[in-house]
Amino acid sequence: MKHYDYIFTGAGLSALMTVYKMVQSGKFADKNILLIDENPKKTNDRTWCFWENGKGKWDKITTQKWHHALFANADFRREFNLNPYQYKMIRGVDFYSKIFKRISKETNIAFLNEKVIEYHESGDGIVVQSNSGFFSCKKLFNSIYDAEPVLKQERYPVLQQHFIGWFVKSEMPVFNPNLPTFMDFSVEQKGNTRFMYVLPVSNTEALIEYTLFSKDLLSTEEYETEIQNYLQKLNITQYEIIEKEQGSIPMTSYKFWKNNTKNILNIGTSGGWTKASTGYTFHNSDKKSSALIEFLQTETDFTKFHKKTKFWFYDLLLLDILSEKNEKGSEIFSSLFKKGNPALIFKFLDEETSFWEDLKVIFKCPTWLFLQAFFKRIFRL
Length: 381
Description:
Blueprint: E1 2-9, H1 13-25, E2 33-36, E3 47-53, E4 62-66, E5 68-72, E6 77-81, E7 85-91, H2 92-103, E8 109-112, E9 116-122, E10 125-130, E11 133-142, H3 148-152, E12 158-170, E13 181-184, E14 193-200, E15 205-214, H4 220-233, E16 239-252, E17 264-266, H5 282-296, H6 310-324, H7 329-339, H8 342-349, H9 355-362, H10 367-377
Parallel strand pairs: 1-2, 1-11, 2-8, 5-13, 11-17
Antiparallel strand pairs: 3-7, 4-7, 5-6, 9-10, 10-11, 12-15, 12-16, 13-14, 14-15
Helix pairs in contact: 1-2, 1-5, 6-10
């Protein structure tokens, strides 16, 4: 049984970011590292978007950058300047290529393209089983999401950000490549929080996603029918579907960190690295992985890594509302973006605001909804 210092079960965004930063830091060259994932990471299986102030470390693989964006619902449209932020788009395949190109040069890092069967603690270490056998390690980073314990509990609501997206190419120039649609709630809500998300990369090409924040998934046909209807609404009749993507991201304030042990750390979605109120993952994982690299240089007990903040509670209140009144999503987000300062909203969603800045954002939302949720929740914590 081959032994490693670190094993990563799952090689998704959070694991690859962490290993990449281990290499960049130069502090882990003496550590043997194994990544195990049944997905070879060679296709464009997803698209990540995030906002960032100025230049960033991922700019070389950024497909598109936008300085303005559009928010819309059935009653109004608002185009806003993102300054000082830019909204950035990265294709999954470009990210994977960059990371694997770099870590493949390191003799202390191995990638095993196999399914993880199970792992368990044994003495002072961990044993991992894959299709080909067993491996041991001192420390394990797990990013394979197990929904069962999350769905079994009833203390914290669990929604899904679920979507299907089409990357389309139109015969006619119909898109504004400088103006992505951040959220368009003008689509029929049907008792849920439903919106369209449009990322144009040229005047004929765009990724169009039909997205919901709700508990239950839809049939593939329903997502795709709504995309077709939206294309017709935009007077796009002649187009080619270049790629499709779909996903379902858990949105919950469940305390994932409670499942960490001294030697096992859950990361990514499994560790609560996804922003619970929005489903945004890339920027959160970037920040968390950097914090983890610093942590590993001074600490060995993984139960000490997580730090709960006020934003955990803010997210919880929103999810409490949407869990009971899922149709209120459009009203909440519309009130926020109709008159709010976009730069301050994005700073708030990045969890970088002061308490007084928090209040400026929160008071733009329907106050009675959040007060009701607050008083219900304080008796359940």
